[in-house]
Amino acid sequence: MLTGSCHCGAVTIQVSRKPRTLTSCNCSICRRHAGLWGYYDKGQIKILARKNALDRYVWGDRCLALCRCATCGCVTHWEPIDRASNRMGVNFRNFDPSVIESTRIRRLDGANTWKLLD
Description:
Layout: E1 2-5, E2 11-15, E3 21-25, H1 30-33, E4 37-41, E5 45-49, E6 54-58, E7 64-69, E8 75-80, E9 87-91, H2 97-101, E10 104-108
Parallel strand pairs: 3-10
Antiparallel strand pairs: 1-2, 2-5, 4-9, 6-7, 7-8, 8-9
């Protein structure tokens, strides 16, 4: 089990395993947040948040909500809007840097082609 948290600790994320790869996306929101995304099924992620600790931001095609800590502002994860969707993204910038250092980072052209660039 790996555990990460926002800067102030109001939001904690637990995942069942280290991701095989992380994704760095250049879409208009991801490039601003500088997130490194690990993808999981909902059942593999546990989000622990203090009451009213999460803010959600929905934009564009309205398929996902970006979640951040309402206190310190760290983007922690994204969740699908469609309840039938099972995939979630976890921002590994909130985990120990050793996890990032030992994981392959893929670059996604989310701004234009939605194709991996490497």
